[in-house]
Structures are given as C-alpha cells and as structure tokens.
Amino acid sequence: MTDLRRSTTPYLLAGGLVGLSFGLAFSRTLYETWTTSFYWLGSPLAGAAAALIGGIGGWALVWWQSGQAPTQQNRLAWALWAFGPAALLWLHILAPAHDVNPLRGWVLVLGGVALAGLLSWQAGLASGRRWPLREAALVGSIALGAYLLTLQRTIGRADTFEFQVTAPVLGVAHPTGYPLYTLLGGVFSLLPIGEVFTRINLTSAIFAATAVALLFALLSGPLQLRRPVAAISALAIGLSPVLWGQAVIAEVYALHNLFVAALLLIALSLLNESGEGGWSVEPLRPWTLSEQPANAAALVIAQFALVGLSLTNHLTTVVILPALALALFWAWPRLPLKVWGFALGALLLALLIYLYIPLRWPALHDGTAMPFGEFIGWITGSRFSGALQLRAWIDDPGRYGILARLLRDQWGWPGVVLGSAGLLILLWRRPRSAVILLGAFAGVAFYGLNYLVPDIDAVSYTH
Fold it and tell me: 52 forms bridges with which residues in the sheet?
C-alpha cells in the first residue's frame, strides 16, 4: 500500500495543480463577465478559495483516474496530456489587470476542460501509439476554434478596412502591395458564408491556425520535444494576445507567420539533427541527405519557392533570410546542379506574383499604365523608407524596453523564464538549431528596433 501511494503521489500533485489553474481562471472569468454579481471574486481571499476548491477537485479526479489506469505509463501519459491544456489557462490568469477580455477567458476555460478530457482519454487508451498528422491537425483545430469564436464580424479600421475593401474587388493595397494576400482574400470573398468583410477576416483565422499546426510540427519533429510539450508550446504562442488579435482581423501577419513557421521547419529539417538525441518519446527515424537525395531536393525546392511566396505577402521575410542561408550552408545537401536550378526557378516563379500589381493597375487608374519606377518603389515600400532608421538601435535605447515589454506581456515573467530555460537546453542539445532560431529572432528584433511605426506590437511579435 505504501509503494502504491508513493507511485501515485506525483500524479495527485499534478492533478491538484491542474485544478488550481482551472479554479483561478474560472473565478477571474466570472468576475470579469458579471462584475456586479460576482464582485466578491475580486478579493485575494476569494481567489485563494477558488484555487483551493479547484485544486481539491483536480486531486480527486486524478486519484479516481489513476485507479482506472492499469500501468504507470498510462498514468504518466494522462498527467502530461491533462496538465498541458491547464497550462494554457495561465495566459488568462497572468494577463494584466487592465486587460479585461471575458471572451478569451471562456474560450480558454471551456476549451481547456474539453481538451484535457479528450487528450487524457486518448493518452490513456493509446499510450505509446504514433499520432503524427492527426496530432498536428488537432493542435491547429484547437487554435482555429478559438479564432472562430472570437472572429471579428464587423468592418475594421486602418489596414484591416483597406484589406476588407481591396481584396473583394482585387484592388491594389498600399505599398508593398501585398499581392498574394490580396489574391487569397479575393478567393475567400467568394465563400457563401457571412458578410464579405467577415470572409476576409476569416483568412487570418485559417492562416494562423495553419501556422500553429506547423509550429507543432517543428517542435515535435526536428526539435524532438515530447508531443504534449510541443502541443502546449504551439498553442501558447497561437493564443498569446498579439497573435490571437491578428488572427481574427483582416491582416497580412497571420499568413506571414504561416510562411515563417514553414520556412523554419524546412531549415531545421535540412540540418538533420535527429541523431543528436532529444526529449522525444518516439525519436524520428533519422535520414541523411546523401542517402535520400529526393527528400533533400524536395526540401530545397520547397524552401526557395516558399521564400518567394512569402516575399509577395510581406517584404520583412528578408530579415530571416540570413538564418535560412546559414541552415542551408550547414546542411549543404549534395544535389545535382539541375536541382539548384529548379529551386532558383521556383523562387523566381513565385516572385512573378508581384506582376499582379502593374497588370491590375490600369483597370484601377483609368487605363493608365504603372511606370516601372513607381512599381519598384511600390513593392520595396520606398514611401516608408523614412521610418526605417538603421541607427535607432544605438540612438534610441528605449526601443529595447518596448520589445522587452512586448515579450513579457504575452506570457508574463513565468513564460519569459520558461522560454529562457528552453533556449539554454536547446543550445546544449541542438546548438545549430538554436543558432538558426536565434538568428531568425535577431533579424526580427533588429527590424523592430529600427522600424519606427506605431503598431510595433504587430510588426515585431507576429513576425
């Protein structure tokens, strides 16, 4: 009996922490939704009581579930899958007091309950079974559900309004034109659901959810994190305040995130570091570029094509190109010259989407052709060149504080600490992958430090 108690103690403690998380999140959501009726939940004592009640409930649930699980392995899997969704609740619990968002709270609380039940049941029944594509689809679907529940069904402001108007009529947006997003928005505007502006907003929800699924694939694939950890990490990013806010309006940043996630996934796959070990319960089957040139060729061609497509959506793709080039240099697959030719051709073919702007221009300007100089200036954003101050990172140290606050506000100090610890572990286990990711982050951070615009949150974080 003593041995049995010792074997279940960690799971009981985990269950208590899960319940505590749900108790705190639920009490805050009640307080923010119906403040006049639940004003007493605003006191620290009431919050502590809610946490205690939730903790006792979680402990009792795990105690009952562990008795049903026939093996310790199943109990561990259950604890991992159940604890992960609860961790997402801290996005709401640790949100600043002035950030009142009851809808976000209900989505996280009710979605967390459903997800914890589903995943703990799945883990208990099928512990150790592979579930690759369905797992990524599930993670993306969870994010998509949150986005759809909070999708804006109104006409937006500023750039959002412009895209809602421009995409349905296949117009030309402000520099750099964003031709790919405009064309995709035009396709979405044909969907027989809701109002036209809602359909354009829907583009961001679909693109952001796909980005979350790709991020899960990156974490559980090349980086070989345990799948529950990868799922929670991907969802924590997908449901962070800034990215969630960009996923429910008509904007180009969600699609940009999709491309960045895909490009980094390919770059880290090319590094082929699966033989270095890692946290994965089920290690990926290692393969080498020399033994499987077809895989390497497909990855290289896809990388070049995606770079071209990403540039036609948002020009800031250039800030991660050095990191992608370094990954390609380190991997350097031994491929025939014609494959490199195909890759370069795929890049140039994708860039031809920019021709949409001069081809469409006459129809929008009384038949007047777009001068070549204006076309170059349009796609390079020369109109906004004054906002790019390459010495701002030296002359304006206050910009560092803005970026630091931006990161802190997404997950609070616990998230910053966990992220830093994860980076150190990655540097130790997979140094090249860590350098590539740090290089991409450095490019984005440098851009954020030097590009002086009012929407620094969206421009920097969602890249």
Answer: none
Residue 352 burial (CB count, 10 A)? 11
**Tens-digit pLDDT string for the chain (463 aa):** 334 344 556 666 666 677 777 777 877 887 887 777 677 677 777 777 777 777 676 666 666 555 444 444 455 555 555 566 676 777 777 777 777 777 777 777 777 766 666 555 555 444 443 445 677 888 888 888 889 888 888 887 788 888 888 888 888 888 888 999 998 888 888 877 778 888 889 999 999 999 999 999 888 888 878 777 888 889 888 888 888 888 998 899 999 999 999 999 999 888 764 344 333 333 334 433 334 445 777 888 889 999 999 999 988 899 999 999 998 888 887 778 888 888 898 899 889 889 888 888 888 888 888 888 888 888 887 776 666 666 776 777 777 888 888 877 777 777 788 888 888 888 888 888 889 999 998 888 888 777 776 555 444 445 5
The 8-class DSSP code of residue 336 comes to: -
For residue 233, the one-letter residue type is S
Position of tokens 């974080």? 461
CB 301 within 8 A of CB 345: no
Residues with Cβ within 8 Å of 39's Cβ and at least 6 positions away in sequence, in order, are 31
In this structure, are residues 293 and 335 in contact, taking their beta carbons and an 8 Å threshold? yes
Instruction: Give the pTM.
Output: 0.71
Q: What is the DSSP string of 284-324?
A: -----TTT-HHHHHHHHHHHHHHHHHHHHH-GGGGGGHHHH
Sequence-separated (6 or more) residues with CB below 8 Å from residue 320: 260, 263, 264, 439, 440, 443, 444
How far apart CA 381 and CA 357 sit, in angstroms, is 13
CA distance 103 to 113: 15
What CA–CA distance (Å, rounded) separates 88 from 111? 10
**Alpha-carbon span 231 to 299, nearest angstrom:** 24
Hey, which residues does 388 pair with through a beta bridge?
451
**Taking the alpha carbons of 419, 457, 203, 315 in that order, is the dihedral positive or negative?**
negative
Amino acid 251 reads: E
2 burial (CB, 10 Å; 0-12 / 13-18 / 19+) is: exposed
Q: Say if CB 421 and CB 229 are below 8 A apart.
A: no
Q: Tell how far CA 32 is from the center of its chain.
A: 27
Cα–Cα separations (whole angstroms), residue 27 to 56, 104, 105: 15, 14, 10
Please tell me the distance from the alpha carbon of residue 216 to that of residue 225, in angstroms, as a whole number: 9
